[in-house]
Amino acid sequence: MNILFITSSRIGDAVISCGILEALRLQYPQARFTIACGTVAEGVFTRFPALERLIVFEKERFDRHWLRLWSKLVPQVWDIAVDVRGSIITLALAARKRHILKGGRRPGRRYAQLGAALGLAPPPLPVAWTAPEDDAKAATLITEGPVIALAPTANWEGKIWPADRFIKLFYALQAKLPGARAAVFGGPGAMEAALASPVLAALPGAINLVGNLTLPEVAACLRRTVLFVGNDSGLMHLSAAAGTPTLGLFGRSRASEYAPAGPRTAIAVAPGPEGEAPMTGLSVETVTSAAFELLRL
């Protein structure tokens, strides 16, 4: 049985789609999967247990990337084709069953929208897949004692909580968790490093995990932390999918759609209209209180 899964080019959206992907794997244990995703999201799927082929594509002018992807998929007859992107190319493939999810903004949690599109109730939570070598590397990076994961980066300025507030938050948490250390997470590139550097500089002994790990290694490291606090980002979604207690911070993005989905999650939201509130309005006290409640401290 051959199943095609076309998903996002962004890490966060790709992670959110992993819930329905895992549900399909469990429903069809003999199936082999071809997954198509954007370059940045590739690492989300490299450890997927039933993966036969991973097709990575980059966006091109005039949507030529869709034509290139179609040319790679059209020779195969698919038993099931699931298109999270809602692209038109899936209609031009030979498939016995299709699930083409409509694009655009709709009310409700994104992971629940995906589950409903496949008729899954309750909607499956996202998952994160790792391999033994990822877990082994994580064990060398995050050893004994409580470690608090901080993710002060995001893909645009409107989502970013001020760095000095992450620092104050950590010390408030450390007062309740004696001996706790910080692990600072971020993606690759100069911008992510610049956003994380003030937090790393202010927290002696912090573990620097900015831009130097694969996504499965990041997931394995997150599983070894007692708490994740971070901006609305792919890292936030990966943390929730990994099962880490995850506190997501929201201001100029919509928590009603993109709050972290996992077994233990919470949000802290800046006051104001949803999706329009500045992150500077989100106080350290509000975030600290939410973190204490999540950890039941």
Automatic annotation (TrEMBL):
**Is Transferase among this UniProt entry's keywords?**
yes
In the record, biological process GO terms are: lipopolysaccharide core region biosynthetic process
List, in alphabetical order, the Gene Ontology terms for molecular function in this entry.
Answer: ADP-heptose-lipopolysaccharide heptosyltransferase activity
User: Which top-rank group of organisms is this from?
Assistant: Bacteria
- An example Pfam family from this entry, by short name, is Glyco_transf_9
Sorted alphabetically, the keyword list is:
Glycosyltransferase, Transferase
Question: What's the protein here called?
Answer: Lipopolysaccharide heptosyl transferase/glycosyl transferase
- Organism this protein belongs to: Acidocella aminolytica 101 = DSM 11237
